[in-house]
Specification:
Blueprint lengths: L13 E3 L5 E3 L9 E3 L3 H7 L15 H10 L8 E3 L9 H24 L2 E4 L1 H9 L3 E2 L3 E2 L3 E10 L3 E10 L6 E11 L8 E8 L1 H9 L15 E3 L5 E7 L2 H4 L21 E7 L4 E5 L4 E6 L1 E5 L2 E4 L2 E3 L5 E3 L7 E5 L19
Parallel strand pairs: 6-7
Antiparallel strand pairs: 1-2, 3-4, 5-8, 5-21, 8-9, 9-10, 10-11, 11-12, 11-13, 13-14, 14-17, 15-16, 16-19, 17-18, 18-21, 19-20
């Protein structure tokens, strides 16, 4: 299946510190981007692999394969249309183009911060896994995980989110806590957002645990609280849902994208890709370096996370061995059967 090109030039991104000050990298390239016709809904369906039996361990997921193919795509696919090259130097034309790109990213930022927030859980996926005879790790299934996302800061173009992950619907079995920093990208006409990832020091995690992981109980400007996982940045791209599903009229369609201001939550989604295709970091748990691959989907009250870790020899450490994302649903009144995963008891037998 052919895929649509998604090109971001290396060396041309906004670097924003945690305090919000921006340093513009003045090394730019001319970017020839491609406008996708393929809908997010179709891509959403294409990465649903729960009934497949891929026994490979170091296997790229569908989104990771998509990322790699797009970076090396020489001829636009049949479902894509080339857009005009962008001049991203410091000329008046280049500055104007970056301003336009930034404005689109700002609109997408508002949508993303609203979607990437709240409580998500994959209990339903675990139930389906068991019916298929799939169990965690070597069994090809998924652990039961819950993701809590709390907005720490939202300044319309700069956001900070506290993420807490725990097992088995029990808020006390925390296995990961991260701080995500969301910035606008002005070097792409896709309205991209860049998400930097910060890992807390042990002392900070102790403090967070003492206050019940409440974001409003911590002073977030202290730089000794966390470390930036450089190279692990995620790019988020907004995608419209299929025209059939969204029932949007043609006058709402822009040449490059759908106008985010006229959209509802069911009419768009966000796809997340690792900016560098993967990263290598030191893991205190394994006391060595690990290779991380990740891709994500956020939209329609779902959050899919396909985070996988491998050792230096390519051996599996964590994540789904078949490359199938952890498919979490938003915990709300529409998914009332998941309320128990917030820690109030009532776990199904």
């Amino acid at each position: 299946m052919q895929t649509c090109a998604f090109v971001v030039s290396a060396g041309s991104a906004i670097q924003t510190s945690f305090h919000g000050s921006s340093v513009l990298n003045t090394t730019f390239r001319t970017v020839a981007s491609v406008v996708p016709k393929r809908s997010a809904a179709r891509l959403h369906a294409s990465i649903d692999g729960d009934v497949s039996q891929n026994q490979g361990v170091l296997t790229d997921s569908a989104l990771q394969t998509k990322y790699k193919s797009e970076q090396h795509l020489e001829v636009p696919c049949s479902d894509c249309e080339p857009s005009a090259p962008q001049i991203l130097d410091n000329s008046p034309e280049g500055i104007l183009q970056r301003q336009k790109n930034r404005e689109l990213a700002r609109k997408n930022f508002k949508l993303f911060m609203n979607e990437f927030n709240g409580e998500f859980d994959n209990y339903d996926q675990v139930v389906v896994n068991k019916k298929l005879g799939l169990y965690p790790r070597e069994g090809g299934g998924h652990e039961h995980i819950h993701c809590q996302l709390q907005t720490v800061r939202n300044d319309d173009e700069f956001g900070v989110i506290l993420a807490k992950y725990y097992f088995d619907g029990n808020p006390n079995i925390v296995f990961r806590v991260r701080l995500y920093e969301v910035n606008l990208v002005d070097t792409s006409d896709k309205g991209l957002l860049e998400m930097k990832i910060y890992r807390f020091y042990d002392e900070t995690e102790v403090r967070l645990r003492e206050v019940g992981y409440r974001a409003d109980k911590i002073e977030w400007m202290r730089e000794d609280m966390y470390e930036w996982l450089a190279g692990c940045e995620v790019l988020w791209e907004m995608r419209p849902a299929s025209m059939e599903e969204s029932k949007l009229t043609e006058n709402k369609v822009n040449a490059l994208t759908l106008d985010p201001q006229v959209m509802k939550a069911s009419e768009f989604s966000f796809l997340g890709y690792m900016a560098q295709g993967g990263c290598t970091v030191f893991s205190p748990k394994v006391k060595g370096t690990i290779k991380i691959l990740d891709d994500l989907f956020c939209g329609g009250n779902e959050l899919w996370v396909n985070d996988r870790g491998f050792n230096k020899d390519g051996g599996y450490i964590y994540g789904n061995q078949r490359g199938v994302p952890y498919k979490m649903k938003r915990v709300n009144e529409k998914n009332a059967h998941l309320i128990w995963t917030l820690g109030g008891g009532g776990r199904p037998e």
